[in-house]
Model the fold of this input.
Amino acid sequence: MPVYNRILLKLSGEAFAGGGGFGIHMPTVERYAGEISQICRSGIQIAVVIGGGNFWRGRMAPHMDRAAADQMGMMATVINALALRDAIEKQGSPARVQTAIEIRDVAEPFVRLRAIRHLEKGRVVIFAGGTGNPFFSTDTAAALRALEIKAELLLKATRVNGVYDKDPEKFADAVFFKELSYIKALNLGVKVMDATAISLCMDNQVPIVVFNLSEEGNMVKAAKGEAIGTIVRE
Done:
């Protein structure tokens, strides 16, 4: 019996590039799709929010108008969402893409009740376009969508094992936290998720699990409630 009925998974755009740093590495995306499909088949309703950093991030153009740069980033998330949907459906699981910006020829517009209905029918729902507004990260979009669909857990996939007191890729003496309160995570200024997203989850009591995406099987373990990575909660 699954611990959670409905979860939301946040994937960064960079994760789609594999080791290449840019673009989409389809074998990597297919691995993610396989794990997402496995979660779906286990009876857990799963939605996904995707970043676009493998193609574009607003900070790549510091002299560009921020709103325009962020809109370009939103478009990049749609490309990733379409690739993931295709890979999931090839695994035999139905999937839908909903976007916060209207691109009706390629995806549904975001409609909260329709998204919930898709989940209830056993479809994976992939949310693209961030929140539809500039100046908000896809982490914040993930927290917002988790609240809107009444997800019981937010999974944040990263390239490290969880939350540390400092960057473990730079400091060998970084201390790992198995469990953390929202307040302590905010006070530490953890880099794995922005403060707005953590605050939204704190205000609405949605636990966050930060886990290492590079280890195959971790996504499924986290979704099933196994002790993977760091859990952030009250």
About this structure: Residues 207 and 233 are 5 Å apart (CA to CA). The mean pLDDT is 95.
